[in-house]
Write a structure and sequence with these properties.
The structure is a homodimer. By secondary structure, chain A is of the alpha/beta class. The first copy, chain A, contains eleven helices and 13 strands. Chain A has a single domain, classed as 3-Layer(aba) Sandwich (UDP-N-acetylmuramoyl-L-alanine:D-glutamate ligase). In chain A, strands 5-4-1-8-9-10-11-12-13 form a nine-stranded mixed sheet, with helices on both faces. In chain A, a hairpin with a 5-residue loop joins strand 11 and strand 12. In chain A, helix 3 packs parallel to helix 5, helix 6 packs across helix 7 and helix 8 runs antiparallel to helix 9. At the A-B interface, helix 7, strand 13, helix 9 and helix 11 of A face helix 7, strand 13, helix 9 and helix 11 of B.
């Protein structure tokens, strides 16, 4: 089944203890789409500027990703630069230039309208809501957000949350959104805001999913969360896009399955961790551009081995 | 099989967002012994003062713990007070009075000498080494330590590390001991210092074990660690002793088994998490004093459910 993702396609300049990379093709939609492309068909809605050439787009196309929804417009592409020199777990933003993203109005190509799976990557919730409205046939919708939208665009974000089957955010965002320091209490509050499930990304410690009864009626609900591990790595080269790659592996696996059961959801959490673990092994999207499908399955087996009693 | 634990038996005054508890019976050996008592026989070596009455000792005795090695001496028991009002994940120490612990010289009752399992809880590494020397028949030795010994007593600690089958410490201590910020690289360095395995406690995110080839020859070694989850709890009443309770569940389960295999080690990590999760549900050792063995097995089943794909 096809996934439609809307989000940023951008250039990133990144410095980490392992080195420096200039103007890598990045952005949430890019990391998400590449990760998801190992599981299912992916279509992208985004906007880029004149600096985004056919060669850059080829990075997505080579993985079979449908880029007809990437709008090319006058001006420069979204640019972000950040440093992980102080802390590998949290980027220090050095520069953000929204550029063409500032006046972005998402257009859905007719060929995209039958997408059954919709992922609203981290962008202005007004745009997320707009795309959701334009995709009435999407049967499963997940999304991401960040501190800036939680703090300063709460009402717009609240509208988006109501329509989500799953919200994927990190610990800090969870506590900020719920105004609650305890993870379980925060998760309960967030599920009451609308999302039928919440996936909390813990970085190097894995991820935890909380389920509402509305997602899997008759099952345990919020009382039994699910924790998926992350892979301890001897070197994290570049954490940029790890969370988006997690989301791509997670949602890509779900879209590849006939039905969303709790067993599929849990396995998807593992595939999320798998794709996140590949993402951080090289700068930018380098590692996700040319994985062997066997590598994905081997790492999935490793994730199982490192967390299962037998 | 019997475990001998040497460590502190103390009084703790604790404040957390859930309230305040005055002079609870605490200390690393107390939490450890209570947690381990659900799995095997436990013997304690410690020193207490005149303020530690028969009634206090009864807390251990009621769980069948052998307290003949608790020396009663003139003066006051070790006292600690701490606050978790700022951060539930890290105690702010308000007061530490070593009292009778200052001149402690461990004596091993003759009845303890056949203990096959030895746990060196967090005390002066000179005392840890002394007890190790006095217990030549111990066939499996694990231990704990803390920042203070790592920073200021490195040489003494190094001697203890050489003789350990397992070292159980938290993330901060691992990075400090290895002088290395990456967990995997730090674990490699620490295994080279002597311990045949390293269990890193991550608090609310569970724990990770790294194995050396010397512990399980012919198996994966350090290349495949093992991660056990922690239980997301809606209220953490008092985190004091969670790590010691983890160690008690972990080592207690190991001592209850015929042989230490990697399968037993992994299951022990789960039982460690189980006992840690009970410990934090009430102030001090209240929850660990009177668990039903069925509760332990039920929670083990919950830990499996929250981390296993099927």
């Amino acid at each position: 089944m096809s996934i439609l993702v809307v989000g940023s396609v951008a250039f990133d300049t990144i410095e980490t203890p392992s080195g420096r990379a200039e103007r890598c093709v990045g952005g949430a939609a890019t990391h998400f789409a590449l990760a998801a492309s190992y599981f299912t068909d992916v279509r992208v809605i985004a906007v880029v500027g004149e600096d985004f050439t056919a060669e850059h787009e080829e990075i997505l196309k080579r993985r079979g990703i449908d880029t007809r929804g990437i709008e090319h417009t006058k001006g420069k592409s979204f640019f972000w630069s950040g440093s992980y020199l102080k802390d590998l777990n949290e980027a220090q933003t050095l520069n953000t230039e929204l550029n063409v993203f500032q006046s972005f109005s998402p257009k859905i190509p007719a060929e995209y309208e039958d997408s059954e799976f919709l992922f609203l990557a981290n962008i202005d919730p007004v745009l997320q809501a707009d795309v959701r409205r334009k995709m009435p046939r999407a049967k499963l919708v997940c999304g991401d957000t960040m501190n800036y939208w939680i703090n300063d665009h709460a009402e717009n974000l609240a509208r988006v949350l109501k329509g989500l089957d799953g919200l994927l955010i990190n610990d800090t965002e969870v506590k900020l959104l719920a105004k609650e320091g305890n993870l379980v209490a925060a998760a309960e509050k967030i599920l009451e805001m609308g999302p039928k499930s919440l996936v909390v990304k813990h970085g190097e410690y894995g991820a935890t999913a909380f389920f509402s009864d509305r997602l899997f009626p008759g099952e345990d609900g919020i009382s039994v969360p699910f924790r998926a591990p992350a892979l301890p790595l001897a070197e994290v080269v570049d954490p940029t896009g790890a969370g988006d790659s997690f989301a791509g592996g997670f949602f890509g696996y779900i879209a590849s399955q006939k039905e969303l059961t709790s067993a599929v959801f849990k396995k998807a959490m593992f595939y999320g961790g798998v794709m996140g673990s590949f993402a951080v092994e090289r700068f930018g999207t380098e590692r996700l551009q040319k994985l062997d499908p066997n590598e994905v399955e081997e790492r999935f087996a490793l994730f199982r081995k490192l967390s299962h009693l037998e």
